[in-house]
């Protein structure tokens, strides 16, 4: 099967690499020429564990190619994936579909023979139908079907998530397209991954509903963490206890500085817009968004409180600035709210992140970047764990305390045990736990 993947970002590149691993021939198209050039030099433009090796193997095997030229890839494709960005539109919070529709226009010009076109990008309900309408009006002569195949992978564990999905969701009302999609995912179905065929509207809405529900779990546990502090309970014990109930589940109950990333904030916002427009508001999800926005600011203030009420002229070491570990993605990271807040209040901020510097330098003006966690802590009054990179778990806290000028550690991810931190001489603050 010949596949054309439009968009070589986090989702497009990972999906293309995994599909080529199944043996399919994948032409990966991106309009960003520098991205394509670097891929053709064998350099992977994003940090995603395992992706280098997977791409190398399939490039060498001749199963994956990269180009800015969409024409030949569409002509020979049985299946075209749209994996371009659908960011939050400025002003109204709705999904910006301009990248999707401009790619659709480009596709239309080159369609040749029966082609399945499927959205992998997260798109609002009705988008697949609208893509079909646009293609039909540009190319009434062409033979195609439009499906929705939302992607559920997470950054940082993207390959594992793609290769071992909880489900594969395909929205389609075209029998020929269903056959193509069934064949495409056969390698995963053989490993017992459930392949679900639903309507296009259900597939599109299920993607948003899944992200909104996960965001809800996070905002819920963040509020419970605050309550734990007030009532003298331990949020980790509470999360573990409720997570044992199969109806609740133990995933996505880690309190933190608020969810970030390229998806939850924009998808929650887009779903709120869709629901309001449909006059069926999701008030619970509106509250999730408010709780999360306030959470990021509250965590900045919490650092200030821990620094004896003021960060003015204090040196704050921030460990981790990406929105989660194992990625270089800084989109909507809590650090983008917390660091400027500390700077506005007069702090000097020094930062270390294992992968965040490339994107972070532009997004976090005025900070000093360090090459490792210990150098960031050198002379700091306060050390803050903002992203739970594994390497921070191995920090020698006595050495951290020794290197610092002050002794305050604010652990916004509950990486350490209070007893371990305090016995190292640190004044330790964490989330939802009473020390
Ligand atoms: P991204 O910004 O990393 O990548 C998008 C890529 O598309 C860019 O490289 C851009 O240059 C390219 N592009 C845009 N218009 C193009 C065009 N006309 N032709 C060719 N290339 C074009 O975005 P992403 O994080 O990969 O997300 C893509 C979509 O997948 C979004 O809708 C997102 O919500 C969804 N999604 C993302 C994740 C994730 O973990 N990042 C997971 C599931 C779903
Ligand atoms: C999320 C979903 O988990 C994926 O299923 C989905 O495909 C993707 O969005 C998407 O639509 O793009 P991702 O944003 O990569 O994936 O990362 P997550 O692991 O979900 O983390 C998102 C944010 O929530 C991070 O800031 C993380 O720190 C935070 N989080 C997560 C918590 O604060 N607590 C938790 O228990 C879990």
Layout: helices, strands, pairs:
Elements: E1 2-6, H1 10-21, E2 25-29, H2 33-40, H3 51-60, E3 64-67, H4 70-76, E4 79-82, H5 98-110, E5 115-119, H6 127-138, E6 144-148, H7 158-163, E7 168-171, H8 175-184, H9 186-189, E8 195-198, H10 200-231, H11 235-243, H12 264-277, H13 283-306, E9 315-319, H14 335-344, E10 348-352, H15 357-363, E11 368-369, H16 373-377, E12 382-385, H17 390-393, H18 397-403, E13 408-411, H19 418-423, E14 427-429
Parallel strand pairs: 1-2, 1-4, 2-3, 4-5, 5-6, 7-8, 9-10, 9-12, 10-11, 12-13, 13-14
Helix pairs in contact: 1-3, 4-5, 5-6, 10-12, 10-13, 12-13, 13-14
This protein binds nicotinamide-adenine-dinucleotide and uridine-5'-diphosphate-glucuronic acid.
Structure description:
It is a single chain. The chain has 435 residues and is an alpha/beta fold. Among the domains are: 2-198, NAD(P)-binding Rossmann-like Domain (Rossmann fold); 208-289, N-(1-d-carboxylethyl)-l-norvaline Dehydrogenase, domain 2 (Orthogonal Bundle). Helices cover 46% and strands 14% of the residues. The strands form 3 sheets. A 6-stranded parallel sheet has the order 3-2-1-4-5-6, sandwiched between helices. A 6-stranded parallel sheet has the order 11-10-9-12-13-14. A two-stranded parallel ribbon has the order 7-8. Helix 14 links the parallel strand 9 and strand 10. Helix 1 (10-21) crosses helix 3 (51-60), helix 12 (264-277) runs antiparallel to helix 13 (283-306) and helix 13 (283-306) packs across helix 14 (335-344). The longest helix is centred in the middle third of the chain and has 32 residues, at 200-231. The protein is globular, with a radius of gyration of 23 Å. The structure holds nicotinamide-adenine-dinucleotide and uridine-5'-diphosphate-glucuronic acid. Nicotinamide-adenine-dinucleotide (NAD) binds at residues 6-12, 29-32, 35, 83-86, 99, 102-103, 106, 121-122, 151, 153-155, 262-263. Uridine-5'-diphosphate-glucuronic acid binds at residues 122, 151-155, 211, 214, 218, 252-254, 256, 259-261, 263-264, 323-324.
């Amino acid at each position: 099967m010949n596949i054309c993947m439009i968009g070589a970002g986090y989702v497009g590149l990972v999906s293309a690499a995994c599909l080529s691993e199944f043996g399919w021939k994948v032409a990966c198209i991106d309009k960003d020429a520098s991205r394509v050039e670097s891929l053709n030099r064998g350099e992977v433009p994003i940090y995603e564990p395992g992706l280098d090796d997977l791409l190398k193997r399939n490039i060498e095997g001749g199963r994956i190619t990269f180009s800015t030229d969409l024409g030949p890839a569409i002509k020979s494709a049985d299946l075209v994936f749209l994996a371009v960005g659908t960011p939050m539109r400025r002003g109204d919070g709705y999904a910006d579909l301009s990248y999707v529709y401009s790619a659709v226009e480009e596709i239309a010009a080159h369609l040749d023979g029966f082609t399945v076109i499927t959205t992998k990008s997260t798109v609002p309900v009705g988008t697949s139908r609208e893509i079909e309408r646009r293609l039909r009006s540009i190319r009434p002569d062409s033979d195609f079907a439009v499906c929705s195949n939302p992607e559920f992978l997470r950054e940082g564990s993207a390959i594992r998530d793609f290769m071992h999905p909880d489900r594969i969701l395909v929205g389609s009302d075209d029998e020929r397209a269903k056959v193509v999609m069934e064949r495409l995912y056969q390698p995963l179905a053989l490993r017992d991954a459930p392949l679900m065929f639903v309507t296009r509207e259900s597939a599109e809405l299920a993607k948003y509903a899944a992200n909104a529900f996960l965001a809800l779990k996070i905002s819920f546990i963040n509020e419970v963490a605050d309550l734990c502090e007030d009532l003298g309970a331990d949020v980790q014990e509470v999360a573990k206890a409720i997570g044992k109930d199969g109806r609740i589940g133990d995933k996505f109950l880690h309190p933190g500085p608020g969810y970030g990333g390229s998806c939850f904030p924009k998808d929650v916002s887009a779903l709120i817009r869709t629901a309001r427009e449909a006059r069926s508001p999701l008030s619970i999800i509106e509250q999730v968004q408010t709780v999360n926005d306030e959470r990021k600011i509250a965590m900045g203030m919490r650092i200030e409180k821990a620094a004896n009420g003021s960060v003015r002229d204090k040196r704050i070491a921030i460990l981790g600035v990406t929105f989660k570990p194992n990625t270089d993605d800084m989109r909507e990271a809590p650090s983008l709210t917390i660091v400027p807040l500390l700077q506005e209040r007069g702090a000097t901020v020094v930062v270390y992140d294992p992968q965040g510097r490339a994107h972070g330098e532009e997004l976090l003006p005025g900070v000093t970047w360090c090459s490792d966690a210990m150098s960031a802590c050198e002379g700091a009054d306060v050390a803050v764990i903002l992203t739970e990179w594994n390497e921070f778990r191995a920090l020698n806290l006595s050495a951290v305390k020794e290197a610092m000028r002050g002794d305050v550690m604010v652990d916004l991810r509950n990486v350490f045990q209070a007893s371990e931190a305090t016995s190292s001489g640190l004044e330790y603050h964490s989330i939802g736990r009473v020390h």
